Amino acid sequence: MYRSVDQVWRTQPRTMSPAVMESTARRIGEHARAHGLGALGIVLHGGEPLLAGKEFISSAVRAIRREVDETVQLTYAIQTNGVRLDEEYLELFAELHVRVGISMDGDRTAHDRHRRRADGRGSHAQVAAAVDRIAEGPYRPLFSGLLCTIDLDNDPVRTYRALLRHRPPMVDFLLPHGNWSTPPPGRNPASADTPYADWLIEVFEQWYGAPVQETRVRILEQIVALLLGGRAVVEGLGLEPLGYVVIETDGSISQDDTLRTTYPGAAATALHVLKDPFDRALNQSALVARRSGLAALATGCQSCRLRRVCGGGHYAHRYRADGTGFVNPSVYCPDLTALIDHVRRRVAQDVDRLRAAPAPTGTPPL
Question: If you count Cβ atoms within 10 Å of the first and of the last residue's Cβ in the chain, which end, N or C, has fewer?
Answer without folding.
Answer: C
